[in-house]
Amino acid sequence: MKAVVRRALGWLVALAIIGAAALAGHAVAMRSGLERLREATQHRLDMVGAGLEADLVRFDYLPSLLEVTPTVFALLDKPDDAELREQANRVMERINATAGASNLYMIDASGVCLAASDWNDPGTPVGTDLSFRPYVKDALARGRGRFYGVGFTSRRAGYYLSYALFGQGQRRGVAAVKVDLETAESAWRKLPGEVLVLDERGVVILSSREGWKFRPLAPLGPEAMADIAGTRPYGDAALVPLDWRETANPDGPAAEIALDGLQYLGMTRTLDPAGWRVVALDDTAPVRASARNLAVMAALGAMVLLLVATVLVQRQRAVRAKLASRAALQAAHDGLESKVVLRTAELRNAVAMLGEEVEARKAIEADLRATQGELVHAGKMAALGQMSAGMVHELNQPLGALRTLSDNACVLLEHDRLGDVKGNLQRIGHLVDRLGKLTYQLKAFAYKNTLSRVRVDLQQSIGNAQLLLSERLREKGVELVVHVEPESLCAWAEEARLEQVLVNLMGNAVDAMAGSPLRRLRIEAGAHPVAEHRCQIQVCDTGPGIRADILPRLFDPFVTSKPAGAGLGLGLMISAHIVRELGGSLRAANIGGSGACFTIELPMVAAQETVS
Q1: Domain 63-180 falls under CATH 3.30.450.20
Q2: How many CA atoms lie within 13 A of 167 on its CB side?
Q3: 385-403, pLDDT tens digit by residue?
């Protein structure tokens, strides 16, 4: 009876050890698998979020271009003039052809669309009353508006940016641009996992899966439904809630989400300034399957170890019996020895098979890690493509300015204002030269061509940089003070590269003063107070200054005080490199009261050389 009890207890202990090994293996595999999945999800979320934020702000400047177009205000004065309406339609068609937005149109103060870039296409908003749209109301009330929804006439969803048109001291109308986000949405379908974007109501407005669009995570209340009925952002969508259940994860920022009967690991990021939430989802089924496999392997390993321990115990018992009665039990001992040898051989074969299986699984895991590395590399290459799209956007600004100046020149020519026409043409020529120099400098940077320095008029270079930033200066309410002594001061440099450095420093100063009550940008140029044959340019702002922990590393690559997604930390490094190539230096310091000051030192052209 006691032997039966001991045998039963032994089996229970063995089962407990095997179960504990299986549970431990399952827990370790789940933890490591979820951690790898969380890293991949975070990377994809950052990549998608940064790309979508860039798409949302890419056309912020476009509606304000209509404010400097005479035809727009002429049509607002005479909305029934068919000839003015056609002229405005064609002007916006040309501007939008250069910018590349989905649509560009203007609305009068009553909310009726007067002209649009798609004036001759089906579904154009021309003649439609859009006063109920939130972006029209916000622009007329506060000067700007943003809105995402299904087009009232085109029935296609898009992101709307609006800008109030001021004239005669009052808001005369609204300029609006529609941005198509379907291209970005299509690109998400090629990535692993799922991506969806939620608006402020918790409704899915963008998704890598078509069946989830325009469906809320939870039923909407009466107030939200009433607001939706008035603004119609989702078209005719039924707004059926998704089967969404979310459980917070105490071990990290990710959450466990049940959606349509599947289990996902989800991570969320908030987009500014739209206030949307981007959610990246990854199916946890492969991780759970891998954890189950590892639990089975751990259980088998524990069984093997228990069997080996059992054999060792049996051998020890046999040896003790052999020593006690060698002669009497010789025959039994021989039989037991042969059985032990046979069983050991079987166990070795089993261990060898298990070892081969472990090696095969290790090879599979190595292949999975390599595949994941390739996916991460592909994500990095997509991010580099988005940076290239940002460079195209920088070229679009002077191109838009060329379009506006040429249209103004036509209007001035009709009024026989030849002097003003000449001035516009000279500005156009200068912008064309700048575009040519910019593309040449990009090619020179790639092939490391030799640098050619010429005499550069600092007064003119600062004025050119001011022209490129005039819209941002006016929009941010920055007062610009320029003092060059003497006015004919020249430096040995390369005009395009020097203006590139000035635009970068002035743009950084404008960003730094965004939250300051006093916004004054001061640019001073003159001879160096100590060094002979040297001149210096100082760009000083009234912002909060440079943080002490960043100042020693300010010109290192990827060092920036801007929030994530607002900058890469390469501008100052590139500017310092350009100034060194020009034979000068770039340094930064904080001003005693408040603000920062960047000083450029360059070789100065002597007075007699300037005259000659």
Answers
A1: yes
A2: 21
A3: 433 443 454 566 677 677 7
